[in-house]
Amino acid sequence: MNRKVLAGPGTATKTPGASGKKEKPHIIYLVACLLAISACSVTESDNIKSKGIEAKFAVKARGNGQTTVTGELKTGSGPLATDLDLHNGDQLTVTAQGISKTMQAEKNLFKGITYVAEFNFDTGGPEFVIALNRPDDISAPNSRVTLPEALEFTLPADNTRVGFDTDLDISWQPEGLSDSVDIVFTTLCPSANGGNNTHTEKRTVPDTGAFSLSTDIIVGTAASQAFFNQNCTSKIQLSRENRGDLDPNYGGGGKITALQSRSRTVIINL
Q1: What is the distance, to the nearest Å, from the Cα of residue 78 to the centroid of all Cα atoms in its chain?
Q2: Model pTM above 0.85
Q3: Tell me, which fold does domain 11-24+150-241+263-269 have in CATH?
C-alpha cells in the first residue's frame, strides 16, 4: 500500500529509477551538448576590464578543522555568462590570520572555473580579505568578510530514528550570535517504483538555539510513492552566515559571504 503526503513549501526531485520511462538517446545527447556549451564558455581574463567582471566569493567552515574559500569570476549575465581564466599575471589571493594564499583554478566541464584555497582552521572571528591583483588594469584588492562564530548541534544525535508525523526537535549552541540561522533538510526515500525520491525543505529561523518541525513536512513529497515501513534518510544542515563587502572595482557586482555549517542525519520510518 502506498502512502501519500501533503507537504509544506519545498522542492522534490525524482532520482533515476523513480520513473520507468527511458529518454531517447539523441535527446539526452543534445541536452548534454547544450549544457556543455553554456557551462564551458571561457575567456582569458586579460580580455576583460575589471568594470566588466562579476565576482562571487564564499568562505565555508564545516567543523572539520578547515575553512574553504571559493571564488568565481564571470563576465556577461545569465546562462551565457563567461568564466574568466586568470591570465598574464592576473591573480586571486586570500589573506586571513596573517596567512596569504593564492587561489588555484579548478576546472570542470559542466561547472566551469572555480578558484579555491584552504586554511587549516575553522574557528569563528577571522576576517578574510580576497584580492584580485591585475598588472594591466585596475585591481580589486579589498573584498572582506568575517567568518561567523561556530555553532554545534545539541539535538538530534547523529542517526537518530524518529517516526512519521512527529515533531523533530533541533537545538544548537551557542545561540543568539546572529539574527537567524538556516536549516535545510534533504530527504531521500526509496520509491515503490525503484530508485529514490528526494525532497528538500528549507527554513530560516531566529537564532534562539531551538526549532522543531514535523517529520511529515521534512519528508514531504519524497514519501508519496514509498512503501510503509520504509526508512527515509534526512540530512539536516544547520548554518550561520555573514555577508561581507565586495570590492567596488568589480563593475559587474557580485557578493562575498562566510558560512559556518554543521550537519546531522536522521532516519525517519514511514
Answers
A1: 19
A2: no
A3: Immunoglobulin-like (2.60.40)
